[in-house]
Amino acid sequence: PFVRNLSLSSGDDLSGSIITINGLGSPVGADFNPTQCPNTPISETITGPNVDVIFSENIYSSITSISVSKDVTNLAVGFGDYGITAFCFPDVDRKGWYASASVQVLTATGDAEDLEYTIYGTLNKFNTAAYQGNFIPFPVPIPSYALTTTETTSTIVQIPYPVTSVWMTVSNNVVTSDQTAIFTFLQQGVS
Q1: Which of 55, 115, 119, 172 is 20 to 30 Å from the Cα of 152, by its Cα?
Q2: Contact (CB, 8 A) for 175 and 115
Q3: Contact 76/149 with Cβ under 8 angstroms?
Q4: Torsion of Cα atoms, 71 then 74 then 80 then 81, to 10°
Q5: What's this model's pTM, rounded to 2 decimal places?
Q6: 3-class DSSP state for residue 113?
Q7: Separation of alpha carbons 168 and 88, rounded Å
Q8: Is the link from the previous residue into 139 a cis peptide, with omega within 30 of 0?
Q9: Residue 144 in contact with residue 72, Cβ under 8 Å?
Q10: Cβ–Cβ contacts within 10 Å for residue 84, how many?
């Protein structure tokens, strides 16, 4: 699963209309990471496009409805230019922690520079299926941290310090049919 923002486009002037998007998702911070659980009910209202493409600010894991304030034609909705992969959870029930995981990203794109990604980790141990909960074992919120710099090519990253969740954030991505990125979490030494 991939949680992305949306693009809305039209060859007509729809700037006089208001578009409301309802679904499950999250606002994002400056690093394109969610600021809340990406399965939280969320709503966003934006002005329609004017013979161009506009983007939602939120990322969505599911859309329940898109409504327009007046009758319009020629409105297309598609994937936006940023988002995140699903969260990967390593074996966090060990008695002691040691580096035994890595992340592999394979990119096969027509224009590699159009696909920028960063791999993040956190010590946030989600305690419900809805990806919400307390930061465990730490009593205060700890922000996510980058495990890579912004990348545009295939890479394998050894995770050198503790994490309870890992994901990939895609930014500055112009989606075309020939772009592919495969995010694989590799955990070794599980018995």
Answers
A1: 55
A2: no
A3: no
A4: -130
A5: 0.73
A6: helix
A7: 10
A8: no
A9: no
A10: 25
Report the side by side order of strands in the sheet with 101-107: 155-158, 101-107, 181-187
Q: What is the pLDDT of residues 98-122, one digit of tens each?
A: 555 677 777 665 555 567 888 888 7
**CA–CA gap between residue 18 and residue 5 (Å, rounded):** 18
What confidence score (pLDDT) does residue 93 get?
58
What distance in Å separates the CA atoms of residue 149 and residue 135, rounded to the nearest whole number? 24
Measure the CA–CA gap between 184 and 191, rounded to whole angstroms: 20
Contact 142, 133 (CB under 8 A): no
Q: Which helix (H) or strand (E) holds 67?
A: strand 59-68
User: Which of the residue ranges 2-11, 26-35, 102-111 would you say has the lowest mean pLDDT?
Assistant: 102-111
Q: What are phi and psi of 112, to 5 degrees?
A: -60, -35
